[in-house]
Structure formats: structure tokens, C-alpha cells
TrEMBL record:
GO terms for biological process: endocytic recycling; late endosome to Golgi transport; protein transport. Belongs to the sorting nexin family. Keywords: Cytoplasm, Golgi apparatus, Lipid-binding, Membrane, Protein transport, Transport. Required for retention of late Golgi membrane proteins. Component of the retrieval machinery that functions by direct interaction with the cytosolic tails of certain TGN membrane proteins during the sorting/budding process at the prevacuolar compartment. Binds phosphatidylinositol 3-phosphate (PtdIns(P3)). It is found in: Cytoplasm; Golgi apparatus membrane; Prevacuolar compartment membrane. SMART domains: PX. InterPro entries: PX_dom, PX_dom_sf, Sorting_Nexin. It is a peripheral membrane protein. It comes from Cyprideis torosa. Residues 28-129 form the PX domain. This is Sorting nexin-3. SUPFAM superfamilies: PX domain. One of its GO terms (cellular component) is retromer complex. One of its GO terms (molecular function) is phosphatidylinositol-3-phosphate binding.
Amino acid sequence: MSETSSEATKRIPPKKQTLDDAYAVPANFLEIDVINPVTHGVDKKRYTDYEVRMRTNLPVFKLKETSVRRRYSDFEWLRNELERDSKIVVPPLPGKAWKRQLPFRGDDGIFDDDFIEERRKGLEIFINK
């Protein structure tokens, strides 16, 4: 009996990876990038949006590559919808940065390039989780 059970649980030897395997297009992939932040408007009417680009070879998608522009509030909407209608743990968004919106700051607040880049990275992490 022990010979039979050990045969049944024997490890499959790993396949050696070739350079072609390593650099070939993956069998199935879904890539989502948050890129190209652009700030629009002036004074109190300013906002920043981000390009959300998706690439895939999954057959369930009609388009293999697509791109849209979305604001932070669109990501908030998505997160709220996912939390409301599902039982999964929804990852957090990067913070709202209330202190950066206070008047009399010495920088551009939420329109500061470093802040926009940090938020972009956080949104990309969120959307990929």
C-alpha cells in the first residue's frame, strides 16, 4: 500500500525553461497600466485624470487592447461598487490627501508632480489587485 500511495503522490519533474519559453508571449495575460496623468482646468476647476490601458489575449475580451481616461473619483466609484456587490476583500485606494488641499500651501498640493506620480502608482496597484 505504501508503494502505491508514494507513486500517486510522486512529484512531476519540472520542465526546463528555454529562452523561447522565457521571452514568448504568455499563454494568457491581462495587463492593466495606469499612465500619462494630465491635469486639466484652472484654479478651483482643476482635476487630474489618468490613462488606464488594458492589454490581453484572453478570449472573453472582444478588444485585445483598449485605453480610457479616468479620474480618481472613478476609481472610488469602482471600489464602492465592488465592495457593495461582492464578497471579496477589495484593496484600498491611495489616500484622499485632504491636507494637500488646504489653502496657503507652499506647493501645488494635489497637483504637485510628485503627489500625482505617487497617486498614479497607488491606482495602478489597486486596479491590478
